[in-house]
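Standup notes, structure subgroup. Blocker cleared on the zinc ion input:
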Amino acid sequence: MIDEYGQRAVTRCEILGKPPYSESSEYLFRPYLSQAYKQSQHLLVQWMHEAGMTTHIDPAGNLIGRYAGQTSDGPILVIGSHLDTVRNGGCFDGNLGIMLGIEVIDYFNRQQKRFSFGVDVIAFGDEEGSRFPVAMLTSKSVAGILNELPTGLKDKDGVTIEQAFEAFGLNYQDIQKARYDPQKVLAYFEAHIEQGPVLEAEGLPLGIVTGIASQYRFQVTLKGQACHSGTTSMALRKDAMAGAAEIIYKLEQCVDSCGQEGVVITTGQIVASPGAPNVIAGQVVFSIDLRAPTDAQRNEFAEKVNEIIEHICRKRQLRHELLIQHDLSASLCNQDLMSLLEQAVKKVGVPVRYITSGAGHDAMILAHLAPTAMLFIQSPNGISHSPDETVRCNDVTAALQTMIHFIELKEGKK
Ligand SMILES: [Zn+2]
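Run returned:
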């Protein structure tokens, strides 16, 4: 019986992966406030009604399904994830969390079970920054942390966010009205695919998320001397490219040998100038993306990044600049909710595995509103943001069972 609910959640994600729920017929793309987005909301409204919920669109364009509690003035447990997708994305990222929310309500509704709290299932509109150069706009609205409206936002066709809101039947100026009253929100729960390879490598279906990683993004500029590649002897070079290569390699070694789980470092971008095969690079600009489970760990490694760069630059006679471009504190999940989730996972008979999320999620925004909990579902091959993204039905069913137990345990605790 529960398997059928799990299977249906998977099937529904697959349905939403194709037109008219995708803007393209060749790949999945569902940007915020698009036609495909609107069509998807219509279908979700139907599924939410069938599951016993009432529905409304909030001032940010999020779809909210409400399963009333025993009383109308009780607190609300919010379950959510995002409906938008990246271009050429997979159909489970975000969407699976919404589908599981609907399934869990359908399960309780069929037993006519109501709780001392209401349950809202939110399909967030903009998590990915799928249409406008802004991300998590809709969860920020719900969390009440959108103090200033981002202005001048245009999509790639030149449509402004104000125009997109109007075409959708909403007023952008009202977006802050999507805010929930923090006094009324009991907790926020999000189920999401892992989007990484850890759970699969350990043969585990589920992971209890401890928090969303602390992050620094640096831009490093190394300055040496551009010179002829044929006439400058190796000993007399100030080669910014070789310096960058040594730094990148040393940083990888440093993180790799530290033995601290969840600490990761990446250089994904590098530009050399003047950029010719026969010229020693006079300048190289590259990125460093550093993430760690806690701010303390991140800061410790940021120190090491500094030391390594300084040491190598001194040795190679290079000048350098280190700029912090992105500074994001860790968002920790709530301890009490994590232990409830642990009990729920044990009841399902699945091994307990705690895991840090290296990627951002709506949950980190909702943490400003309420205590949060997150459950990861194994991503086969670790693939996400790709049409090859997939899930296993048994894992999805295990997630659903965990959510059922979690809600029942939450009721018991209240
Ligand atoms: Zn996602």
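Discussed briefly. The first strand starts at residue 54 and ends at 57.
Next: hand off to the docking folks.
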